[in-house]
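User: Reviewer 2 asked us to show a designed sequence for the structure in our supplementary figure. I'm pasting the structure tokens here. Could you produce the per-position amino acids so we can include them in the response letter?
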């Protein structure tokens, strides 16, 4: 999420997300910064997104979606100290992953235009609020930024690779960073180890990590979000055989030097796609993302676009 996105833009988005259990159709889910999709034990798909104490939605068919009440029943006690200017408890750009028998939900608490930010963790044994073992437990701050730090602790993206848990994150400032987490706690494995920078450009945020074959792919957003029809978001990608990089594009350019193969950008009224996630349903692979709908005055909506791969292993949108 662009670090200086305006409060006015947010209120326009989230005022439509205040009513739980409201079904909406495919490409009509009004949402921003969707997480990676995750499937629970009964096959239901879930996603989480920016909103008051984190927005949740579910679908049984990736077509019709139902909003649910905010994930967090109350604002964490530490949140006001981290970001005193975030008075409406809008928490940004979550991501979700299952680690053992727990679902880990990572989300950002921040202020507009500042890197006074923290990525925090909540865990639950179930995703469905009607399940007997449902309930999100606050596990506190994972990583925090502020004046004097060269990163902005927002936009978490998770990956388990060879049994190790990793988190990419970042927005503007020094770029995209990588840290290793402890699977047992979900928190930093070694708090004394500084985050490792893995990508940079002048306008960069919203990373996604994805393992396919011998490569790990790092997707990033470049450009500006949250400006409706004037948004310039686009998705680029690099890949590496090592989680720590270097991530190179198809021309051998390093993402640390503003490289990246373009995956998707504005297409007519499909404006500023961003916060990409990858998922597989049967034999079909999909890329999830939000976009700004030019036919709806630039409001943000969810899209699923069919994903394919070139013969030399680069992702491409095929629908």
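Assistant: Here is a per-position design you can include in the supplement:
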């Amino acid at each position: 999420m662009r670090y200086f996105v305006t409060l006015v833009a947010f209120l326009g988005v989230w005022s439509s997300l205040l009513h739980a259990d409201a079904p909406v159709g495919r490409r009509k889910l009004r949402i921003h910064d969707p997480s990676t999709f995750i499937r629970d034990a009964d096959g239901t798909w879930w996603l989480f997104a920016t909103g008051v104490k984190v927005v949740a939605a579910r679908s049984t068919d990736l077509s019709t979606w139902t909003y649910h009440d905010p994930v967090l029943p109350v604002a964490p006690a530490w949140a006001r100290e981290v970001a005193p200017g975030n008075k409406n408890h809008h928490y940004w750009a979550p991501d979700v992953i299952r680690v053992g028998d727990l679902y880990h939900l990572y989300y950002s608490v921040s202020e507009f235009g500042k890197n006074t930010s923290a990525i925090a963790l909540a865990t639950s044994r179930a995703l469905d609020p009607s399940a007997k073992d449902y309930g999100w437990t606050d596990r506190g701050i994972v990583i925090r930024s502020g004046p004097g730090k060269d990163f902005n602790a927002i936009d978490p993206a998770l990956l388990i690779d060879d049994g190790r848990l990793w988190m990419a994150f970042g927005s503007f400032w020094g770029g995209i960073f990588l840290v290793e987490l402890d699977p047992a706690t979900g928190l930093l494995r070694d708090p004394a180890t500084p985050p490792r920078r893995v990508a940079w450009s002048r306008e960069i945020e919203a990373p996604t990590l994805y393992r396919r074959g011998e490569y790990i792919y790092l997707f990033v957003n470049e450009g500006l979000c949250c400006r409706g029809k004037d948004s310039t978001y686009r998705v680029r990608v690099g890949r590496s055989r090592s989680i720590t990089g270097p991530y190179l594009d198809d021309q051998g350019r390093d993402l640390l030097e503003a490289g990246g193969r373009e995956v998707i950008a504005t297409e007519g009224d499909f404006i500023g796609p961003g916060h990409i996630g990858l998922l597989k349903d049967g034999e079909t692979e999909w890329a999830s993302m939000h976009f700004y709908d030019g036919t709806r005055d630039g409001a943000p909506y969810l899209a699923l676009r069919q994903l394919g791969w070139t013969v030399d292993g680069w992702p491409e949108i095929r629908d």
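For the response letter, you might also mention the following. DSSP finds two helices and 22 strands in the chain. The two ends are 25 Å apart (CA to CA).
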